[in-house]
Amino acid sequence: MNERMIRIRGARSHNLQTVDLDLPRGALTVFAGVSGSGKSSLVFDTIAAEAGHQVNETYPPFLRNRLPKWTRPEADEITGLSPVVVIDQRRLGGNARSTVGTVTDTWTYLRLLYSRIGTPQLGESNRFSFNDPAGMCPTCSGLGETVEIDTAKFLDPDRSLREAAILLPGFADDGYWQSKYIDAGCFPTDLPVREWTEDQRLALLYGGEYAERLDPKPPKGFESLVAWFERIYLRTSDTLSEHKQRAVDRFTRSGRCPDCRGERLNAEARAVTVRGRTIGELALVEVAELAGLVAAVTEPAVAPVVAALTERLRAMDAIGLGYLHLGRATATLSGGESQRIKTVKHLGSSLVEMLYIFDEPTVGLHPHDVDAMTGLLKRLRDKGNTVLVVEHDPAVMAVADQIVEIGPDAGAGGGRVVFQGPFAALRTADTPTAKALASRAPERREPREAAGAVTVAHASRNNLRDVTVDLPTGVLTVLTGVAGSGKSSLAAELVAQHGAITVDQRPVGANRRSTPVTYTGIAAPVRRLFAKASGLPAKFFSANSEGGCPECKGLGVVYTDLAFMDGQETVCESCGGRRFSDEALRHRVDGLTIADVDDLTIADALDRLADPAIRRGLRDLDRVGLGYLRLGQPLTTLSGGECQRVKIAKELRDAAAPSLYVLDEPTTGLHLRDTDTLLDVLDQLVDKGHTVVVIEHNLDVIRRADWVVDLGPGAGRHGGRVLYEGPVAGLRGTPTAAALGHD
Ligand code: ADP
Ligand code: ADP
Ligand code: ZN
Ligand code: ZN
């Protein structure tokens, strides 16, 4: 029997304060609340984790080991769950063989179409697969690209061999390889390469007939630099070490495969056409246009294939992916694009009564495209599924059946359900979300004066159409435009031409021991406080040194290796995960033990620890809205948006000379209220003389900008032009202007 509710009793993961909640099944519910209030703890770490765990329990143990691991949440009871699909923003990644077409299954349909009605008839559909030897181009092995060696980068013309003119890795001064070429006896060793004869230079690079013409000739077994490079770097297995990959990237250029011209398929497959077009050509056509081409195919033999393929392509177009082509490698997609691609897969699914969970599906979407995304969420619900969405965008809240707000504040000040009901009722409630909705800041009336300008000249990366723009320095500039219009491409060009600093969402702190304490460098001042209070040396208060629990050596956890299963990590029984020895825990500062300090939030620590070095270290993390993080929380648990804010804080503290910063959607994961805090921080960076350029869809950020560069008008080849550059107040006649209410 199916229950009508998801029933949660006594949920206590992270900061949740014994939450009881009933959620209607078959409904669309949006979870709101300030950053750090506990939305993820409830939706991902409690509901999704329990659903995943319960499904895994139904499999035999040997299979369970191969399934994704779900840590069971801390809760008294959770019932009424279904199999769960979590659609998050983790990038799809994948190798060069994973494309938009392969991950959405549209390529499979297209292959079927060609195998059934293509002329001439070829037969099986794997003959159109670039990942199958039967179909792949032999020259590029189905990658569509070949790697060309860029010999211009091999030599520094202003140096001689003895001055390390050979720039390849491994040729550093006095190295083994260096001396091999110096000792060859056929090259001038003290003359800058610029002054060599053409034959000498070509002989060094390519050997062969050029080497034969030299006098004296090179010794037997002479290996040219190109031959050397191919042997060391290119004639190896598919997977290169990171170090080798960097070398390959530096000394090669990848270009379209001369044989298949990027279509990835062999000559046989490339000769087959449907309505005069090859399947390889279709891989390069934008999805929006492809949908029309496919729909025009009317042969009865393929009617079901055409119907399924058209539906899926139209769905992709509808959620703002119409500018992609099926041949695009998934590794090059952004987080928001990846999430929308994953959504497409599930749209075609005929499973019902599933539990779908989305993490901010509007990331990367212009207000203009948000409607399509909400339409899609509603369609999933209408098929009989339960849809839970963590989201800050009021446009998504407005279409939900109900809103659940977690709060009221972050960390220990949150973790409760402060509102449950329809959006209309939220507007009149007394919660942080309701208050923020009621008070949005007005547009900037008087833009700050620019200090100067940097010019991005003749940008033609990706879809940009020879764009030249002057960006004012010393102010806040926002790059706007619909998804796929070219914002990231322009930002990448700015970075390439002017060496701007990109403040991205990649993880901070690679190892498990990095926490806000280690990252901000306050560990030493904290230990000094305890040393002063106790009269003991500071090392007695370091978990990694004398102060550590002897059982787990200050890790707080112990590892057990089990014969057939993955190693297990369990909390250390001796210290209960507190990491410190009993001796270290005997001493207190302001009533707190050294372990209690790790449990403080940054905001609490600022209140309670008066030491100036500690305050300096923590102040900027609090200013960027991360005051709710606990001092001992591993940085590996932070979300992408939180990592980006940690980096902003670091720049606030460290940057001395005026710098040029580029940020991609810094409001990701931010509640309306926290957006205001972030804007204050960006203003502070500008007031210190820095230039800040952000890619944003968030209207509050656009309103506060001094300068706007609006790209478009559409996506992909329909975009790539500058529609407007100037103060925000003057923006007219574009989708962004419409979203701001300017028209
Ligand atoms: P939200 O999703 O609303 O931004 P979270 O659920 O991520 O909030 O966080 C709620 C609280 O739980 C915060 O104080 C956060 O620092 C803490 N927290 C989140 N993840 C972890 C974790 N893996 N371990 C310990 N504390 C965590
Ligand atoms: P925005 O940032 O406005 O969403 P992008 O600059 O990411 O837009 O994309 C602009 C166009 O360039 C789109 O058609 C996109 O598909 C294409 N594009 C972006 N990155 C790549 C890439 N790495 N390889 C091929 N095409 C790309
Ligand atoms: Zn090829
Ligand atoms: Zn221990």
How do the strands and helices of this protein lay out in sequence?
Layout: E1 5-11, E2 19-24, E3 28-32, H1 39-57, H2 61-64, E4 77-79, E5 84-87, H3 100-103, H4 106-117, E6 145-149, H5 176-182, H6 198-206, H7 208-212, H8 225-234, H9 242-251, E7 252-256, H10 267-270, E8 273-274, E9 277-278, H11 279-283, H12 287-295, H13 303-321, H14 335-347, E10 355-359, H15 367-382, E11 386-390, H16 394-397, E12 402-407, E13 416-421, H17 423-426, H18 432-438, E14 452-459, E15 467-473, E16 476-480, H19 487-498, E17 501-503, H20 516-520, H21 523-534, E18 557-560, E19 568-571, H22 582-585, H23 594-599, H24 602-608, H25 612-626, H26 640-654, E20 660-664, H27 672-687, E21 691-695, H28 699-704, E22 707-712, E23 721-726, H29 735-739
Parallel strand pairs: 3-11, 3-12, 5-10, 10-11, 16-21, 16-22, 17-20, 20-21
Antiparallel strand pairs: 1-2, 1-4, 6-7, 8-9, 12-13, 14-15, 18-19, 22-23
Helix pairs in contact: 4-13, 12-13, 13-14, 13-15, 24-25, 25-26
The structure holds adenosine-5'-diphosphate (2 copies) and zinc ion (2 copies).
One zinc ion binds next to loops.
Please provide a written account of the structure.
One of its GO terms (cellular component) is cytoplasm. It is found in: Cytoplasm. Keywords: ATP-binding, Cytoplasm, DNA damage, DNA excision, DNA repair, DNA-binding, Excision nuclease, Nucleotide-binding, Repeat. Pfam families: ABC_tran (PF00005). It is a single chain. This protein starts with a strand and ends with a helix. The strands form 7 sheets. The protein has a 6-stranded mixed β-sheet with strand order 5-10-11-3-12-13, with helices on both faces. A 6-stranded mixed β-sheet has the order 17-20-21-16-22-23, with helices on both faces. The chain has a 3-stranded antiparallel β-sheet with strand order 2-1-4, with helices on one face. The chain folds into 5 domains: 5-91 and 335-438, Rossmann fold (3-Layer(aba) Sandwich), CATH 3.40.50.300; 100-144 and 257-318, ABC transporter ATPase like fold (Up-down Bundle), CATH 1.20.1580.10; 148-256, Helicase, Ruva Protein, domain 3 (Orthogonal Bundle); 452-508 and 639-740, P-loop containing nucleotide triphosphate hydrolases (Rossmann fold, 3-Layer(aba) Sandwich); 516-637, Up-down Bundle (ABC transporter ATPase like fold), CATH 1.20.1580. The protein is built from 29 helices and 23 strands. The mean pLDDT is 89. With 743 residues, it is α/β, with parallel strands linked by helices. One zinc ion binds next to loops.
